[in-house]
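Task: complex structure prediction.
Instruction: return structure tokens for all chains below.
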Amino acid sequence: MIKKGIRAALVLTVVTVMGLASFTGCNSEDDTPNNPTNTAADTEETATPSGTTGEIAVITREEGSGTRGAFVEIVDVTIEGNDNLTLEAVVAPGTSVMMTNVAENPLAIGYASTGVALGDDRVKVLYIDGVAPTVENMLNGTYAIQRPFIIGYNLDTGLNELAQDFVDFIFSAQGQDVVADRGYVPFVQGAPEYSPSGLTGTIVVNGSSSVYSLMQHLSAAYRELNTDVTIDVHGAGTGHGISAARDGLADIAMSSRDLRESELEFMSSLTIAIDGIAVIVHPDNNIQGLTLEQVRYIFLGEVTQWENAR
Amino acid sequence: MGKRSLRLLNREYAAKILFIISASAAIIAVGLICVFLFLQGLPAMWDMGIIRFLTGTDWRPTWDPPRFGILPMIVGSLYVTAGAILFGVPIGIFAAVFMAKFCPRPIYVILKPAINLLAGIPSVVYGYFGMVVLVPFVRENFGGNGNSIFTASILLGMMILPTIITISENAIRAIPPEIYEGAIALGASHERATFKVVLPAAKSGVMASVILGIGRAVGETMAVRMVAGNQAILRMPHEFLSGARTLTANVVIELGYAYGEHRAALIATGVVLFVFVMIINALFSILKKKESA
Amino acid sequence: MEITNKFLINDVNLWYSDFQALNNINMDIPEHMITAFIGPSGCGKSTLIKSLNRMNDLVEGCKITGSILLDGENIYGDIDVNALRKRVGMVFQKPNPFPMSIYDNIAYGPRTHGIKSKFVLNEIVEKSLQDAAIWDETKDRLKKSALSLSGGQQQRLCIARALSVQPDVLLMDEPTSALDPISTGKIEELVLQLKKDYTIVIVTHNMQQATRISDNTGFFLLGELIEYGETQQIFSIPQDKRCEDYITGRFG
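Output:
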């Protein structure tokens, strides 16, 4: 009897171990299409009276993240000017963790760049004050939660010829097309055509992980025209990128917020796009939109139940 | 003849120097890390007040003025590590016993590589697995939002399995067969001889595996931060379905953005973590000494 | 005095995979006597003694034919092997105390067979240690690790451990080969005392030891039983040339 029990325990153990081994071995993430069809609805504010209930699972980015900084500032999730986002919020380090967390949890609410959120149909993007975060609405300024994407370089050393050519490309018609294609709002209207320079070499770009994905697409488009150029794009964070450019470790820094006074002393600041921050929920959540004020209360932790959120 | 022995001597000498250099590289690396951590971390801790830093329950690094209290993270690390032991150690030891004493050959040749594979899986992959499988599983079956101390404990328990299984298995196999035969000759069954004589005889090796497992659990970062929720809140033990932040997660999540005082506070967090790991290693060496004595 | 046989070994052949280690062995082992197995290394004497409590079952690829009767019952028939090993105790070549306390070493056997009472266990421990003539040396340190004892003490502890489950037979596989002469002397003395209560089978390399303690001796060579009889007779007038050569030290 005891003998059998021990045998059973052992067999169970083996099965568990083997199960783990096979489970963990087979993860793959699909590429998500760049198709902003996952906005709440085609018409505005069609919330049904009965809907999602239960405790809101607030998901936030980490302290110091550019997206969080921008979100907290624009939505005013603050107390005496300090970040007062509820401590109970799950902290998702990185955009992909944020997206997965919201996609997996029916009661979650989070936020991410519109460029990322609109392209990811695992989540639902909410209307804010009745306005969807579309390119159009950001251009005309009606969508409330938006911020600039900025690139900068060290003012003392300036840009080398190659990096300057890449910056020229970003502000050309082709470059701004890439910006628009990715769901961001092009900052320069009626930009000039770019023609390949035939330069060779390597450009290092580092900074905001929010700008990172756009910068990768810009770099890919640029290298189609200039095949002998290598561009290393790193998304180590806004602060990292700025110090890297200052210390000569990167040619171009990326920032997802306006540069600070202290940073402007040694950095140039060029806005390449406008990024909206989308408020996202699980696709099964039947809420369609929130007011900026409601978003604020949810992220302050003052509204904690979905039934009180509308 | 004389020339040859001289050459041999020279070669021996060269090898000796090479070994000394290699050995000192490791020591220098440890030394540099120590110096760097303590030089940068200790003054910061001193400025913030060591007691206030260690026992403070508020972590508000971007506030003006900032608040740096890492008690929630210390406690978070303790919970998650304790949880990992709770899940990982019994399963790990049973698995090791099975592998060493019960496993039929055909199963062993599958099981052994599977466990090695488990050890080789990068921790982000564990993290992703935790995020898409464990977090929803815990949310749906236990409650809470899934990102929790409990979830992180399960995941860490899995991650320390290979360490515990491999080292414990070796320890069990290292017990002389005469000991086992002695028990069998008294009329003990295979199970009783294994569990009551061989396993206790391998005690110190098994303990060593557990301590190494704890070391891995305390130091694990990537996977934990993906499932633990990372809230810098002091939790009570009964709140195991809520999230918590570990020391490692605290450092790695914010270091990318931190500068000035915030950065110093994170390095000080690293110092605390370092002391934790040193204590664990000291325990390990004490145990080893006891074993050889 | 009438002699009853404890073991009846009939036509036993034993293989380790393809290697035949025992070749058609037939012998009777009498009760309450000391039977010695001698012969050069690899002659099969250890293999045969391990067949008597089926320790050979642990060896992969081991196959045995024929029968070994213990008190008339075939131990290779449908029997409880653990019960057999309880009846037929064994002491090994190298002292193999468990790495636990002296007390727990002795109590392990009785506990295995279901004795839980602290009182009974205490009694068994004391009795076994006394029977193995090691009680005086250990009574004040029962909680100490058995590994703290000397080699000779460890071997006597192992004998006490074997006695703790009250066997009928004690198998001893070169029990003194790892010990110094003084410890060897103590063990031999002990074996002679145990003879009145137990049937003892001892494998030894030491010719003098066989003459000193055994009643009967079997000489083995290349898996065969060459000569078997009263010890005195074997050592004074061996019948077989090979046996004589071995005993007189011409090979070995």
